[in-house]
Design goal:
- The protein is mainly alpha-helical.
- It has nine helices and no strands.
- Helix 4 crosses helix 5.
- The longest helix has 34 residues.
- The protein is globular, with a radius of gyration of 20 Å.
Length: 293
């Protein structure tokens, strides 16, 4: 089966989507808390999670899971599949030698941007489902699942409504994947040159990738979240006209550190998700290699 040309072409995409969906099932409650903090909830992450369970029920921590899984089935399938494909092609052009860091970064930027375009509608559905509980009861959208969310958005705002906030989403994904994918590959090569192999190499490289993914992407994630959840005021005016307006107003009101609001929770969410995704992906690839897939 490993020689089947169709399977060889789709395998990176299947592997990427599967690893991302496993990670999302593990990380969803942390993602809910992260979004609530970005939308103004106060207190510690544990306290916020406790309040969510007390006031809205335990399963609120998994609100938006269907949208999260759909997002991984689109966004992560595309980004990891594209990254694997273009890095392999780049290695061929480099005569089989390891790619320099800057080329890995370009591959990560490209994969993140293209993957994000594919996953942007699911990302919008996820944010709106997670933010719904923060709205007054009469303003809640009450989406039942990801597909109900997407169909409601199309009905209310047209097809273009599915891509609200797509600009910041794409830029954020480019930054995250440059940090995550390039640093993961570079760290694995560096650790291997130091004699670190097996599980320590996999865990070490994924931990490094998680940190850089978080640090590069949080400011853009903050802007993306603000734009995707905004609603018009009583006069029908939106709080922001776009990503640059959101960034300027945030900077004016809170300074540069405002973009890193909720960083500990964001790191706890992004780093484990990146780590689990990369670790699961590595073991899937090893299993396929050992069993002729």
């Amino acid at each position: 089966m490993s020689d089947n040309p169709v399977w060889k072409a789709v395998k990176p995409f299947v592997n990427g989507g599967a690893s991302g969906m496993v990670a999302t099932c593990c990380i969803q409650p942390i993602d809910i808390v992260k979004v609530r903090i970005q939308l103004g909830a106060s207190g510690s992450p544990i306290g916020i999670a406790g309040n969510i369970v007390k006031q809205e029920g335990f399963f609120t921590l998994y609100r938006g899971l269907s949208a999260g899984l759909l997002r991984q089935a689109t966004y992560t399938t595309a980004r990891l599949g594209i990254f694997k494909t273009i890095t392999e092609e780049a290695k061929k052009m480099n005569e089989g030698k390891p790619l320099p860091l800057w080329q890995k970064a370009v591959c990560g930027l490209t994969a993140g941007g293209l993957g994000s375009l594919v996953g942007s509608p699911a990302d919008l559905a996820l944010i709106r489902m997670q933010a719904d509980g923060t709205l007054p009861v009469d303003q809640r959208r009450n989406y039942r699942n990801a597909f109900h969310s997407l169909s409601s958005i199309v009905k209310e705002d047209g097809i273009g409504g599915l891509f609200v906030g797509a600009g910041p989403t794409v830029v954020r994904a480019m930054a995250l994947n440059m940090g995550m994918l390039a640093s993961n590959d570079q760290a694995k090569e560096t650790l291997e040159s130091m004699g670190v192999t097996g599980a320590p190499k996999i865990f070490g490289a994924s931990a490094i990738a998680g940190f850089f993914a978080s640090a590069f992407s949080l400011p853009l994630d903050f802007i993306k979240t603000q734009i995707q959840k905004m609603k018009p005021d009583a006069n029908g005016k939106m709080p922001y006209t776009g990503a640059l307006d959101c960034a300027a107003k945030t900077m004016a009101e809170g300074g540069p550190l405002a973009f890193y609001k909720g960083f500990p929770t964001y790191y706890v969410r992004i780093a484990p998700h990146s780590m689990i995704t990369l670790i699961v992906l590595n073991y899937i690839q090893e299993f396929q290699r050992d069993n002729g897939f």
